[in-house]
């Protein structure tokens, strides 16, 4: 049977329905993280074990000590890539019933899907932007579109801010991507989401990088 708290990926052809049979889960669910698994990375695919939405930023904030950062990566079918979610950039974001998402394990401890994380909502996975300067840098090769996000917030710094900055998902090879890097103490990590101070904007020069095949025409 399926393990509560573990994420699963299913692809069927042609398009159709998948039927799940089992008991309704109403209790808290612990899930033990693994490091260096079959893929040689610390990424763990988790899944919402409840038939209700859960508060994603509450989960990340509660479990941040056992993760490399308070970041979740969710598959976006419309773009064919992973969206990066952090509590600072996506306050109150929710994870749908049965929704799978990646986190990066910073330990081999257990994380917990607590009953208190359940929330009543009719919203989907993606939330409206908050009232802050919010920049999306998009690129396209004519077929695929990718984006990097930069937000400006009074609580952010030019260094790494856990729970605010979210790196690009690298559990799979990214052949086409746009990203930014830190302005201070740049460690070479590529960020899909970066939050910067909302002041002295004219002095902030953001490093931007692109991954693409050679001789590809790219539009920004």
Shape: globular
Q: Which series of helices and strands comes N to C?
A: EEEHEEEEEEEEEEEE
Q: How are strands sequenced across the largest beta sheet? A: 10-11-14-12
Distance between the termini: 46 Å
| Residue windows where pLDDT falls under 50 for at least 5 positions | 124-129
DSSP strand content: 25-35%
How large, in whole angstroms, is the Cα Rg? Answer: 18 Å
Number of helices: 1
Helical residues, percent: under 10%
Structural class: mainly beta
Put the structure in a nutshell.
4% of the residues lie in helices and 30% in strands. The protein is mainly beta. It is globular and about 55 Å long.
Description:
The protein has 220 residues and is mainly β. The protein has one helix and 15 strands; from the N terminus they run βββαββββββββββββ. The protein has one helix at residues 56-63; strands at 29-32, 43-47, 53-55, 72-76, 81-85, 94-95, 100-104, 110-113, 118-119, 134-140, 145-152, 166-167, 177-180, 191-196, 208-211. The strands form six sheets. The chain has a four-stranded mixed β-sheet with strand order 10-11-14-12, with no helix packed on it. The protein has a three-stranded antiparallel β-sheet with strand order 6-3-9. It is globular. The N and C termini lie far apart (46 Å). The relative contact order is 0.17.
């Amino acid at each position: 049977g399926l393990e509560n708290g573990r994420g699963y990926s299913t692809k069927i052809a042609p398009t159709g329905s998948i039927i799940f049979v089992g008991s309704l889960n109403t209790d808290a669910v612990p899930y033990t993280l693994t490091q260096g698994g079959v893929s040689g990375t610390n990424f763990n695919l988790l899944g919402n074990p409840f038939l209700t939405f859960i508060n994603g930023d509450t989960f990340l904030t509660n479990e941040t000590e056992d993760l490399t950062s308070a970041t979740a990566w969710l598959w976006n079918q419309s773009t064919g890539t992973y969206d990066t979610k952090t509590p600072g950039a996506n306050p109150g974001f929710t994870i749908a019933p049965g929704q799978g998402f990646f986190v990066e394990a910073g330990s081999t401890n257990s994380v917990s899907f607590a009953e208190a994380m359940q929330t009543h909502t009719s919203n989907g996975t993606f939330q409206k932007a908050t009232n802050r300067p919010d920049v999306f840098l998009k690129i396209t090769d004519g077929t695929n579109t990718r984006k990097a996000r930069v937000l400006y917030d009074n609580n952010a710094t030019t260094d790494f801010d856990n729970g605010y900055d979210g790196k690009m998902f690298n559990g799979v090879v990214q052949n086409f991507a746009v990203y930014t890097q830190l302005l201070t103490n740049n460690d070479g990590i590529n960020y899909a989401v970066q939050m910067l101070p909302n002041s002295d904007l004219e002095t902030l020069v953001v490093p931007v990088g692109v991954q693409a095949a050679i001789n590809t025409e790219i539009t920004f």
